[in-house]
Amino acid sequence: MNVAEKKFLFLALFLFALGGISRLGAFNKLSPLENILLPINYEAAIVDTVAVDTVSIDTLAEAEEQLKIQKAKAPKKKAPAFPISINTASKDDLCFIKGVGPSLAQKIIDHRETKGSFRSAKDLEKVSGIGAKKRMAIEEFVKFD
């Protein structure tokens, strides 16, 4: 091992140890280096970057509280009762099925509109992007009416 490799190995071990120590909580308070690098009123600088309606916020704690309130107000999508009917399900309902994203849900809907309703699980394989494995994963969450 040459000198450059030894230096690199030493640096890697040092950073690994430093990371382990920081995970133990040894650096909970700001270090002197952070006092130099961060602005004097770093809490206000962080609050300025947080997008909260038009409420004036003085501390970081108030900003966090406002964000929690906004997240709580956001409407959440309600999962449909499974199994869902593949022939009448909306794009949002299809997205709740594991392995089905927005693009695959749209492909299912497009196929349903052009070729007609699905009669069996085997018909799902006619949709682009659905093979045997994906069909088996999907068919336990859908029903064919």
Account of the protein in words:
52% of the residues lie in helices and 3% in strands. With 145 residues, it is an all-alpha fold. The chain has three domains: 30 residues; 38 residues, no CATH class; 60 residues, DNA polymerase, domain 1, CATH 1.10.150. The chain has a two-stranded parallel ribbon with strand order 1-2. The longest helix has 21 residues. The N and C termini lie far apart (70 Å). The relative contact order is 0.08. The mean pLDDT is 78.
Shape: flat
SS field, number of helical segments: 7
On the 0 to 100 scale, the average pLDDT is 78
- CATH classification, class level of the largest domain: Mainly Alpha
- Placed side by side, the strands forming the largest sheet appear as 1-2
Unreliably modeled segments: none
CATH topological fold name of the largest domain? DNA polymerase, domain 1
Helix content: 40-55%
CATH architecture heading of the largest domain: Orthogonal Bundle
List keywords for this structure.
mainly alpha; DNA polymerase, domain 1; 3 domains; two-stranded parallel sheet; flat
